[in-house]
Amino acid sequence: MDWNELAMELQKEVSGQVLTREPMARHTTWRVGGPADLLVIPDTIKDLSATFSFAADHALPVTVLGRGSNVLVRDGGIRGIVVKMFRGLTSMTIIGEDVVAEAGCYLPFLARAAAVHGLSGLEFAAGIPGTVGGAVVMNAGAHGDSMGDVLVQVEVMDSSGNLTRVPAGLLQLGYRTSRLMDTGETVVKVYLRLRRDEPVEIRKRMQANLARRRALQPLNMPNAGSVFKNPANASAGQLIDRCGAKGLTVGGAAVSEKHANFIVNKGRATATDIITLMEMVRRIVWDTFQVHLEPEIHIMGEG
Ligand SMILES: Cc1cc2nc3c(=O)[nH]c(=O)nc-3n(C[C@H](O)[C@H](O)[C@H](O)COP(=O)(O)OP(=O)(O)OC[C@H]3O[C@@H](n4cnc5c(N)ncnc54)[C@H](O)[C@@H]3O)c2cc1C
Hints:
Blueprint lengths: L2 H9 L5 E7 L11 E7 L3 H13 L4 E4 L5 E3 L4 E7 L7 E4 L2 E5 L4 H10 L2 E2 L11 H7 L2 E2 L2 E2 L4 E7 L5 E5 L12 H4 L2 E8 L1 E2 L2 H18 L19 H7 L6 E2 L2 E3 L7 E3 L5 H19 L8 E3 L3
Parallel strand pairs: 2-5, 3-5, 4-18
Antiparallel strand pairs: 1-2, 6-7, 7-13, 8-14, 9-10, 11-12, 11-13, 15-16, 16-17
Bound molecules: flavin-adenine dinucleotide.
């Protein structure tokens, strides 16, 4: 396929950016991942539907991403079109206690905007470096709260470009999971209901959450947050730590010395390094505790 020619054709249909053979390492917080054949950053909902229609016409698969803060893209990259819902589709409206945000909004910005308006409910999200859309798909959460606690409904687009509103109750939101992971629908808009509180109190809680993160997480090195889900009644980080796996290294990837459930990119890690290290950690935890660790991060692309 002539990707440059296809990119030029698609660029005529969309106002957002279209990139060819774009390294995904530039679009993931782990800073690893091979090239996407085409990468589109839609500016508008119309851009998004035009991209789906183009993909259907050319029989190209589509992968939708947000900020790339919970994904591991393999070194061979992603075939077809990657739609990156970050930096485009970022409008947000706050009316009373209701918030409507497009999927590309950066979650920490939205949490801060809510605080300024004296709206509580997103304090947990101030340090989660993803998009609002990605946060709904993952049902992101922290400090005992999650998106499901404040979500009213979402607007999704299917691969034919049809828009539907789905109430939160139908999304099967659970611990880092939602039905949206299986439906292939793209979240375009998110409707939240927050609660009134004093901005000073909201900010205090937010600052406390952020300070806790700074103290416990290796935020100075590329990572993707918690690599594994917590098994029932246990902490994945504590299990890994108790196996003595902190500091375990494969190539440029290492189990963080600061937080055992984080794998950091020391500079030149490949996706293969990270996957190999993940497998080692899983094996060690299984051999020691007979506990199976399930990845929280989503692995995608070709090896
Ligand atoms: C330092 C750090 C700390 C973190 N702390 C937390 C934490 O406390 N709690 C927590 O839950 N997570 C945490 N994370 C992980 C991550 O930030 C969240 O899961 C976040 O919600 C992912 O959003 P994203 O936009 O980056 O999604 P991505 O990583 O881009 O995508 C995640 C999944 O959602 C899909 N997706 C993304 N956007 C859309 C969309 N608009 N429509 C349909 N599908 C979509 C993707 O295909 C992928 O399967 C942390 C990550 C980092 C790097």
